[in-house]
Amino acid sequence: MIEDLSVFFDDGDFAAVALINGQEVRGIFESPVEGVALGRAATRATGSLDVDLALPFFLTAAEWVAGIKKDDLVEVSGQVYSLAAEPKPDGAGLVLLELALPQTPPSTNSDWR
């Protein structure tokens, strides 16, 4: 195992800096988009709808985010995300953080009946 993982996360190169639990953490941020068909997949005439689904993640050294858990907030590239699942360690000292836009609770100040 490589002892100094910081060489892979140079923010002057391709790494991003995230704010996690009040600390700046360097890592690799990606937000790939995957096309998803909603509805019936047999034919387009049956009413399927194609949408794009963002799947953002942040890859960093596990030791830098010890104690992070599902629903913790992660700010990266000017956007606040929540941790969508428990961190996924790779066994070599890195951890994958699956991110999602935080869900806003339903309003309780509604007149709708």
Structure commentary:
A hairpin with a 2-residue loop joins strand 1 (16-20) and strand 2. It contains no helices and nine strands. The radius of gyration is 18 Å and the shape is globular. The termini are far apart. It has a six-stranded antiparallel beta barrel. The protein has a two-stranded antiparallel sheet with strand order 3-4. The model has no long low-confidence stretch (mean pLDDT 81). The relative contact order is 0.20. With 113 residues, the protein is an all-beta fold.
Topology:
Blueprint: E1 16-20, E2 23-30, E3 33-38, E4 49-54, E5 57-61, E6 73-76, E7 79-83, E8 88-89, E9 94-100
Antiparallel strand pairs: 1-2, 1-6, 2-5, 3-4, 5-9, 6-7, 7-9, 8-9
